[in-house]
Amino acid sequence: MPVCPLDFRYGRQEMKAVWDEENRLQRLLDVEAALAQAHAKVGNMKQDHADIIKKTASTRYVKLEHVKDIDRKINHEITAVIRALTEQAGESGKFVHMGATSNDILDTGAALQIRDALNIVEGDLEGLKRVLAKRAKEHRDTIMVGRTHGQFALPITFGLKLANYALEVHRHQQRLREVRTRILVGKMSGAVGTGAGFGPKALEIQRLVMEHLELGTEEGPTQIVARDRYVELMSLLANISCSVEKFATEVRNLQRGEIAEVSEFFDDSVQVGSSTMAHKRNPVTAENVCGLARVVRGFMSPAYESAIMWHERDLTNSSAERIFVPHSFILLDDMMAKVDGLFESLVVNSAQMERNLARAGSVIMAESVILALVSKGMGRQEAHELIRKCSMDSQHACEDFKAHLLAEKRVTALLSEKEIDGALDPRAYLGSAGETVDRILVIVG
């Protein structure tokens, strides 16, 4: 009976397949096959034996259920794999796993799975970046009010907001590429990292295995690949989850009834927003993404704790990693697919953006007026205090900001009404927003 929501609610098949039991077993067998080939190349066994091991190191021959049956009897997973492979390899089976320790196989196999998972995440990032860039270009000049501290600030464009998101995703792509060399490594160096069990050609065997599998090599092994690498991996996934939640949170905020500037696509013909409130059109996808992102970041704690082991290694990391590594990848992939679709179909209410900008009032253009006064010779601090007082007085009195400016002789002594109107025009105070969007779109490709 399925218990984990990953079994029946969250996650996409491609990513789940990477972490599937059957695929995990195949990756362990791939490492055993590579080890046999390396032994043959250095002369520790005949090539015929290595080829038979390679052929039989497949889930076509080594059945998952049989491995699990053996494991239940002996309580040692890798020995169960070794015995099952040895049975299939016949006479050549005596060379299976020669010189290796369990984590030579486990950590190297995990690196293969992580590589496949990172490839999927890299595709997810590219897809999301392209959607954000496309919508940023579409809304390059869609004006709206910017908000800081949840309050009206200055005019911006929706395109600038989306372009910044695209650039953030672009940085994650760079981070992912940069960490590959530190994360995608395996080891073939025995029980305490000395490689003694492989004999005088230990380093050559390790090099050949990793070259065959197209992985980097753990330069400083103990019994395991160093877990600071896993901490870095999980930090990357958590960082991406922060961005995804940030983007989704903005949708949730802008969809609030009193703002209503964007909304998730809602299929009016069939979709239900509430079991009782028939009018509801909730940002459920964005909320779902935010919840899952918090789970991914929550896995950072066991990732840090699992990097701390006794001496050359203990087993405290193993059980935790079996949970937090695959779950983080599966959930992140699920989230990114959802947020990709969210922004692809996002309904943008530019008319409401204009209305909210107008509702903010001309007082949000106070900075523009300050700079206009400075350009006419007034000191910056004097201008700031003067306009601060005008803006506060107009807000307290619920009166038009422009009227207070016109009533202030120190303002009208320097600025004509036409110049004041120009300073209060939000479209004239977008600065380099459009050019910034254009520049970002070039950067993200």
Summed up:
Helix content is 64%, strand content 5%. It is mostly helical.
Q: Which keywords apply here?
A:
445 residues; mainly alpha; Fumarase C, Chain A, domain 2; Ribonucleotide Reductase Protein R1, domain 1; 2 domains; two-stranded antiparallel ribbon; two-stranded parallel ribbon; 19 helices; 6 strands; 5% strand
Task: Describe it.
This protein is mainly alpha-helical and about 450 residues long. It folds into 2 domains: about 100-355, Fumarase C, Chain A, domain 2; about 360-430, Ribonucleotide Reductase Protein R1, domain 1. Helix content is about 65%, strand content about 5%. The protein has helices at about 15-20, 20-40, 45-55, 65-75, 75-90, 100-140, 160-185, 200-215, 230-255, 285-300, 300-305, 315-345, 350-360, 365-375, 380-395, 400-405, 410, 415-425, 435-445, and strands spanning about 145-150, 150-155, 185, 215, 260-265, 345-350. Strands 1-2 form a two-stranded antiparallel sheet. Strands 3-4 form a two-stranded parallel ribbon. It has a two-stranded antiparallel sheet with strand order 5-6. Helix 4 (about 65-75) packs across helix 5 and helix 6 packs antiparallel against helix 19 (about 435-445).
